[in-house]
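Continuing the batch. This is chain 6 of the set; chains 1 through 5 are on the previous pages. Same settings as before, nothing changed between runs. Recording input and output for traceability.
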Amino acid sequence: MKISPFSKTYEGRCVLDFPGIELQPGRIYAIIGANGSGKSTFAKILAGVLRPDKNCRLLCPGSIGYLPQTNYAFRMSTRANLLLNGNDTRRADTLLDALQLRHLAHKRADRLSGGETARMALARLMMKSYDLVILDEPTAAMDIETTLLSEELITAYVQETGCALVLVTHSLQQARRIADEVLFFHKGNLLETGTAKQLLTAPENAETKRFLDFYGI
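Output for chain 6:
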């Protein structure tokens, strides 16, 4: 899947200048960088929520699944929320079990806690198969136990569907655990890419190294 170069400008200021990339199926790409580096803007443009600049054309064929930072729940049961994205009841129950939500299956989803809502939203997205999946900080509201459960599910989903998955994360440990490739964003630019092992342990760019040293990698 080829993503062509694009940029995004707000009020005359370029907040993202992306050189393009080819995403391989069956691989997880972690997007890391400081706040304001362009990570969420990148995710929104890939998902079609934001338009790139007029002179840029985004080539992203295939079906796209997107989970934004702000999770939402419809005023119906947790299980019914999942079934909005597919009517496979067996899969819905499997996902509820995988994320320890089965006991909340009949609770109104808009009354779930923040972490429960995040797990429900992830499960709802995974009711379908997509060619490209974009997850923006999917585990930020979760504790360590449910974060690890979610990471297992994400990895299994990629293996099952063969999708390319873009994971925006503030957790370098998460990137190390499940990513195949890592992209480091800095002030709206993609400064470095590489395998998770290479970039997180032996970065070539000095700014990448400073970022990793600051966050304890």
